[in-house]
Amino acid sequence: MKKLSLLAFAWLLVGVGAAVAQDVRYNYAQDVDFSKFKTYKWVNIKNAEQVDAITAKQLTDAIDAELAKKDLTKTDSENADLYLGYQTSIGSEKELDAYATGWGYGPGWGGGWYGGAARMSSATVSTTTIYTGQLDLDMYDSAKRELVWRGVVSKAIDPKANPDKRRKNIEKSIAKLLKTYPPAAKKS
């Protein structure tokens, strides 16, 4: 019985970990030399969902800080090497968790052995709301006007979190998102 309880607890921890984990994805133009990019300028993406001004500043500040670590300089000049834009998606998902509190043996469907069948004695179902504050960051080669890098991180923005937790989560998300930027140069 203790083993069953420990197994159920382990599955619960795995489920909780998966529910709060951030998913980071990125793609880039493989024929681009990213070492040539030294400056960037923020641009607005038309028809993109926007967040409030405070959250927008937290996002751009976090991205600026991470890109500064990668020797990219922000500028307002039209001659910037890269144009950066982002869009967000804030919504929610419902997650259903069901688990049995025990198994019983007794009369049930069909004959089963000895005239009975195993059955669940009781079950519990709970729902959890997961807020999906996704951030999409796009980088465009300004000279060619082409998308060269795109990164997406889920659960970056939690509208229900307190201000400190929200800011820290944004910073952590951006660090994860830009961890692999710039892409490694191709070996010839």
Task: For this entry, give a set of tags.
globular; Double Stranded RNA Binding Domain; 188 residues; 37% strand; alpha/beta; 3 helices; 6 strands; single chain
Task: Give the low-confidence spans.
Answer: 4-19
Strand order, sheet with most strands? 1-6-5-4-2-3
How large, in whole angstroms, is the Cα Rg? 24 Å
> Could you please say which CATH topology of one domain applies here?
Double Stranded RNA Binding Domain
* Order of secondary-structure elements: HEEHEEEEH
Structural class, by secondary structure, is: alpha/beta
Describe the 3D structure.
The chain starts with a helix and ends in an 11-residue tail after the last helix. The chain is an alpha/beta fold and 188 residues long. Strand 2, helix 2 and strand 3 form a beta-alpha-beta unit. It has 3 helices and 6 strands. The chain has a domain at 20-95 and 131-177: 2-Layer Sandwich (Double Stranded RNA Binding Domain). The protein has helices spanning 2-20, 53-69, 163-177; strands at residues 24-28, 39-42, 73-74, 82-106, 117-141, 146-153. A 6-stranded mixed β-sheet has the order 1-6-5-4-2-3.
